[in-house]
Design goal:
By secondary structure, the chain is of the alpha/beta class. It has 12 helices and 8 strands. 43% of the residues lie in helices and 13% in strands. Helix 9 links the parallel strand 6 (182-186) and strand 7. The structure holds 3-methyl-2-oxobutanoic acid. 3-methyl-2-oxobutanoic acid binds at residues 26, 45, 47-49, 60, 87, 141, 146, 184, 186, 208, 220.
Length: 284
Amino acid sequence: MSERKKVSLPYLFKKVAKDEPITMLTCYDYPTAHFQEQAEIDMILVGDSLGMTMLGYESTLPVTMDDMVRHSKAVRIGSPNAWLIGDMPYMSYQPSVETAILNAGRLMAEAGCDAVKLEGGAEMADRMAGIVASGIPAMGHLGLTPQSVSALGGFRLQGKGALQAKKIVDDAKALEQAGAFSILLELVPDRLCKLISERVENCFIISLGSGPDAHGQLLIYHDAFGLYPRFKPRMAKVFADAGKIIQDGLKQYAHEVTQRKFPQPENWFGMPDDEYEELLRILD
Ligand code: KIV
């Protein structure tokens, strides 16, 4: 069992100062959170990607606050010590600063999160500032922001051209000034990620498919362990093909039941002869 101390913001900033990369994965359920706790993953994101990875939706848009609270709670139980970030789902913060604060508060109070994450740049800086002013650590998310996938024209690289890249640099500055403790850069060119990572002073940068020069790395758990059947994005490396192992196991299970090879005596419980005789007598 892991016996590490609870991960805190000072601990994370100390890692950044020592140039030690921060480890981060998404997670949505208790048993996986237990495994991630044992692996001493620094930060866990309960992403609204759970709409796609766990619930089979085509996008993250239908995910609700109740979904996020339920899954974050389960992850908190499985991983008491990781720095747990609850993702704010679509329309849980966009309408107003007050909506953003109330919903961020739910993830903290009801699910036991340590922080929240919201998508968007300068246009969301007032939501970020309001959440942070309420005493809730918050992470920004720039580049490919899945809640805006329709406006962005699909799941594609962002900030390839100089003008679009400049906007991402300005957005990062706005989020840092609003008090974000960290910013996730998803699917932007490696040089842009490096440049922003070198320029921030009061927050640290996490890369998802944005190259090696951020302060830490994030992967979607289902992509990294072969558990998402629809596609595998190029940015993800499969560290272990759990999906294949499970599928082989399922076929074996079906085979053994069909062939009457399962269960075996070690898989069931008997009844003493005298009790069984008594049962038959009572039934007669
Ligand atoms: O929901 C999520 O998992 C995310 C990642 C794509 C970063 O926001």
